[in-house]
């Protein structure tokens, strides 16, 4: 439990916010905005409001893992819904320091650890709800990350969000095509994962951006059944058996010719 402390006054919060900056999550901490000039304005709260209804309002007794938690917005929302245990992980120590401070200001008992999505197997436990929000497009090995989440930490629900570009269509594709049938690849709604060699939106950590069909296909391929798609970039999924077996072990579905 977080020990009882005298509430911080506004000036002390403002001083700490400035010392811990810059922030990507524009949080309201006791009336102090952490990123008042954010290019996405009230982010991530304004996006959260578009899909919050799709998650259980009461998380009593459930455990939550927030992968790539940044400053802890979603982890705090899960704790506010009564989750018994919330763990947030991120590979950036600066974000973790922000998250710990934000949880302290809000009086929320949340654990934060420095850990990469590729290292989730070291946790040695599964969680009822796993959040993977705004992470996939920052990864050089995105499908590996989904495989590892499935194999090591997801017990039931996965809440997935990813920046998407390209067509919003999802084509009804056949199970297989002949080697000489190349036309499906030209369809606007064929699953596409766009590779960014240098940077996008000024960010060198933006590596891959899927279209909507690709997000859905990758989730299914990793063993996540899509239950809901409440917002254009958000998928609510349930962990099921991976269709190709152990995905993170090559070759997953047969030897190459």
Account of the protein in words:
There is one protein chain. With 257 residues, the chain is α/β, with parallel strands linked by helices. The chain has a single domain, classed as Vaccinia Virus protein VP39 (Rossmann fold, 3-Layer(aba) Sandwich). It has helices at residues 10-20, 45-48, 73-80, 93-105, 142-153, 212-222; strands spanning 28-29, 32-33, 63-67, 85-90, 111-114, 127-133, 154-161, 193-195, 208-210, 224-231, 234-239. The strands form 3 sheets. It has a 7-stranded mixed beta sheet with strand order 5-4-3-6-7-11-10, with helices on both faces. A two-stranded antiparallel sheet has the order 1-2. A two-stranded antiparallel sheet has the order 8-9.
* Mean residue pLDDT: 93
In the CATH classification, which architecture applies? 3-Layer(aba) Sandwich
Number of spatially distinct domains? 1
CATH superfamily: Vaccinia Virus protein VP39
- Whole-angstrom Rg: 19 Å
Q: Indicate the percent of residues in helices.
A: 10-25%
Shape field: globular
Individual helix count: 6
**Main beta sheet:** 7 strands, mixed
> Per DSSP, what share of the residues sits in E-state strands of 2 or more residues?
15-25%
What distance lies between the first and last C-alpha atoms, to the nearest angstrom?
Answer: 56 Å
Query: What is the name of the CATH class?
Result: Alpha Beta
Class by helix and strand content? alpha/beta
Question: How are the strands of the largest sheet arranged?
Answer: 5-4-3-6-7-11-10
- The CATH topology corresponds to Rossmann fold
Number of strand elements: 11
How do the helices and strands follow one another from N- to C-terminus?
A: HEEHEHEHEEHEEEHEE
Low-confidence stretches: none
């Amino acid at each position: 439990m977080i020990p009882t402390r005298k509430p911080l006054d506004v000036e002390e919060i403002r001083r700490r916010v400035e010392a811990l900056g810059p922030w990507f999550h524009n949080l309201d901490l006791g009336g102090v905005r952490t990123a008042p000039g954010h290019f996405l304005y009230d982010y991530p709260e304004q996006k959260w409001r578009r899909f919050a209804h799709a998650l259980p309002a009461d998380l009593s007794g459930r455990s939550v893992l927030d992968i790539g938690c940044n400053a802890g917005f979603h982890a705090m929302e899960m704790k506010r819904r009564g989750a018994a245990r919330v763990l947030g992980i991120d590979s950036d120590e600066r974000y973790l320091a922000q998250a710990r401070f934000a949880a302290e200001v809000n009086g929320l008992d949340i654990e934060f650890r420095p850990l990469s999505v590729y290292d989730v197997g070291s946790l040695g436990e599964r969680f009822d709800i796993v959040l993977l929000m705004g992470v996939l497009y920052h990864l050089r090995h995105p499908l590996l990350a989904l495989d590892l989440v499935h194999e090591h930490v997801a017990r039931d629900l996965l809440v997935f969000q990813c920046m998407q570009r390209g067509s919003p269509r999802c084509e009804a594709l056949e199970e297989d095509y002949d080697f000489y049938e190349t036309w499906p690849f030209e369809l606007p709604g064929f699953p596409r994962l766009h590779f960014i060699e240098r940077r996008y939106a000024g960010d060198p950590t933006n590596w891959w951006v899927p279209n909507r069909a690709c997000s859905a296909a990758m989730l299914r391929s990793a063993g996540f059944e899509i239950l809901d798609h409440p917002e254009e970039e958000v998928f609510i999924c349930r962990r099921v058996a991976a269709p190709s077996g152990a995905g993170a072990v090559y070759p997953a579905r047969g030897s190459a010719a």
